[in-house]
What we know:
By secondary structure, this protein is an alpha+beta fold. The protein folds into two domains: 2-198, Heat Shock Protein 90, CATH 3.30.565.10; 212-326, Ribosomal Protein S5, domain 2 (2-Layer Sandwich), CATH 3.30.230.10. The chain has helices at residues 2-12, 16-29, 58-61, 91-98, 153-157, 162-179, 205-213, 215-219, 261-272, 310-326; strands spanning 34-40, 46-51, 100-106, 113-119, 122-123, 133-135, 140-146, 184-189, 195-198, 221-227, 231-238, 248-253, 256-257, 282-289, 294-295, 306-307. A hairpin with a 5-residue loop joins strand 8 (184-189) and strand 9 (195-198). Helix 2 (16-29) runs parallel beside helix 6, helix 6 packs antiparallel against helix 7 and helix 9 (261-272) runs parallel beside helix 10 (310-326). It is elongated, with a radius of gyration of 21 Å. The structure holds adenosine-5'-diphosphate and magnesium ion (MG). The site of magnesium ion (MG) has 6 residues, from helix 2. Residues 22, 25-26, 85-86, 91 line the site of magnesium ion. This is DNA mismatch repair protein S5 domain-containing protein. One of its GO terms (biological process) is mismatch repair.
Amino acid sequence: PTVVNRIAAGEVIQRPSNAIKELMENSLDAGAGSIQISVKSGGLKLLQIQDDGCGINKEDLEIVCERFTTSKLSKFEDLEEIGTYGFRGEALASISHVAHLRIITKTADSVCAYQAEYIDGRLKVIPGVTNPKPCAGNKGTIITAEDLFYNMDIRRRALKAPSEEHNRIVDVVTRYAVHNSKVGFSVKKAGEGNVDMRTPPKSTAVDNIRVLYGGQIARELLEVKHEDEHFKMRGHVTNVNFSTKKFTFLLFINHRLVESAAIRKAVDAVYTSYLPKGSHPFLYLSIEMNPRNVDVNVHPTKNEVHFLHEDLIISATGMADKTAGQGGSS
Ligand code: ADP
Ligand code: MG
């Protein structure tokens, strides 16, 4: 059964950036105001994420890595109306099957923090050592995954160079930082002083776009705003007078980072029709709609999402283009 679990885990966590996305979503679900990430060797040697969220209480610490353990689903109907990122109870379980996992956590009402180590979905049995054991720590959670895919040679060999995996991590955190601008994020290589990205807490999306994607893009941004009975849409797009070499597209549906080939294609076509060949917009789009109309239960690493009213959203995005046509930077 362990091998089967490991294979399943390798499906959920295909590369370090998937693990970081899951861990970040847990920190956001925990109400974190700060999320600090350290990485070694593209995440293969070390992935560490520290937050100042609600923490995990000691009783839950014993079971958090068991599959389908989640504190986020109280009744079956909830599956239809998911308000938090997590709901499968699979992320920590999966990581514990393919890495050495350690959690240090403290809730507000606990006098001390606890440290726990896991293997294959369970608390590790370490002779002579209590696990979880009390330790010093601040409110919040530090999750450390070491030697990712140490037991899955095939998965490890399928990865790109560590520098490329590192870039993917920085990219996914950057996207979350734009969308969650009230939360401060950082990514750095473990043991190094310089950060690869950083945003301050209590910021705004546009300020974070400026910090993360550059002042030039930020100066050209136009607001995208639309609301009707089906969905609510907010975002920022570059003016048609300004283009980037590649289409940078940040799409969040109900606060989940997703991909939509349909929206991507339609929006790019509209914008590029105004621009010389080979130029594209920068677009950050956040769409909120009834969770019943979004299929989030797709494969966890294939972020391609399907939802109702796709065509309405595409035409609403086209309205942004009309604004852009008249605009000019302001
Ligand atoms: P899910 O997010 O789907 O519930 P996970 O495996 O990602 O499943 O996490 C399992 C549980 O562990 C969560 O439901 C939550 O209770 C707890 N947890 C995980 N990470 C954190 C964190 N950073 N802060 C507080 N609780 C956490
Ligand atoms: Mg989760």
